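May I ask for a single protein's sequence together with how it folds?
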Amino acid sequence: MKKMIKYSLGLMVALCLTSCDSLLEEDTDSFPSAAVVYATNESVESALAGCYHELLNYHCFGSDYMTIFCTTGGTCANTSSSYVDMRAMKVSPDDKYVGRHFKSYYSVIANCNDLLDKIDDSGASDEMKQRAKGEAHLLRGMMYFNLVRAFGGVPLRLTPITSENLDMARSTAEECYEQIISDLTTAAELLPEKNPLDGRPNKYAAHALLAKTYLTLAGNEEGSPYWQKCIDEAQKVYGKYQLVTLQELYNPQNRNTAESIIEIQFSDVNANTYTQGIAPASSDYTPNQASDPYGRYRPSKYIFDTWQGQYPGDPRIEEGIIYNSYTTKGGTSTTKIYPAYNSSSGSSRMYVYLKKFLDSRYVAQYTTQNFIYLRYADVLLMLAEATNEVSGPEAAYKYVNEVLARARNSATPAAEQPANWSGMTKQEFRKRIMYERLYEMIGEQTEFFDLRRRGPQFLLDYWIAHNAHPTNCTNPSSAKYKDDWFECTMDMAKRGMLLPFPTIEINSNNLISDSDQNPGY
């Protein structure tokens, strides 16, 4: 029987609009009126900051985004026994991480809806109103883009929450994408070329996210009009950012580099768990640690060996991956890991570690490092993929080769690999570009989406190749070290295209029932 669980998104809006210091102490009688919240440029800026606040929450980009999309992405193992089902794409609709992550997006959306509903009647300047509306539209579009790719069609909340609209049915995925395109198009029209606040998005960020939306909509359809739409939007971004060296990019102390397009801004007040999730315990990589990092999100042996076999000596591996061994804190001993260490019984040492974006300032649990949601290399790879579909590989090489050249030139002297692409058929380019995205973006939580947007057959083919990798442990001493964890059937691939629709939303929304659950769950 449906549980009558109700939660007030209106309350969350009000909470996010109060100061961070008093976030949990305020009672509803003390909340400022809309006339006060939107009275001046300064107060509108504070309200806009509230739209960003939930992004920093532990349940959003602070931790759960990584937990969910690294673990289910297909290129990284999770060496914690708590996530065996999630790794195998058998995550339950009751999963607490999925449920609370889903809700966190709606907190951002609620704040954006409140701002967009009230700002036109505010006392702020026209310039302030325009920028604030542009940022709110971009954030709302971004949240729905994450939601629809992960869960399919979701309730489209576009106005502030009231008792009359608290229950809302799922919209179709097509309706969600229409709204995303509308939001991002509006954002591109309203946002300035350069945002006056460091780290905030500009109009080119909206165009870049639109390009990614169209790339996703193109799916695996040859001749889809969305390929050209992707190119059109990405070309508006081309040359507006620049690739930086891997050393600059991978060092999280370098915030908002020339490559960053959308970057989540963390701080001492709101920090994240990325380094805790990837760094080896008691190693020289975190010399100031007071407690061990978990080091649980680890590139799979399949993707590492395939990558190294494709590009031996790739600086992206040298700068971004810890492999063979690492020294313990203080350099007192060496721990041997994959591929130098191998075992048929399985071990945490049977995986390499991510080094890219590892923050050496880590002390315990959190660091203040930012999270890059979208960067320029991604746009170049989008341009390469879409151009190949429209015009063939000859016109597409230039874009992917810019990314490869940056990798080579990040070494001194310049490395030989990854070599420029040439001499491919359209079909060869299509397959290679999908794996190139996995190599370039590994650990950045894009893999889940990239492995699915080409359809269930592409996902299934990847699972089969992963499971067949010769160094996988098929019968380890602990299930958490088992590599061949994908059930390779078309039914499972179709199920794995989406996460389960969260039980917490079904139980709290009278217009959604168990019959609305995603296929296969």
In short: The first helix runs from residue 9 to 16. Confidence is low (pLDDT under 50) at residues 1-31.
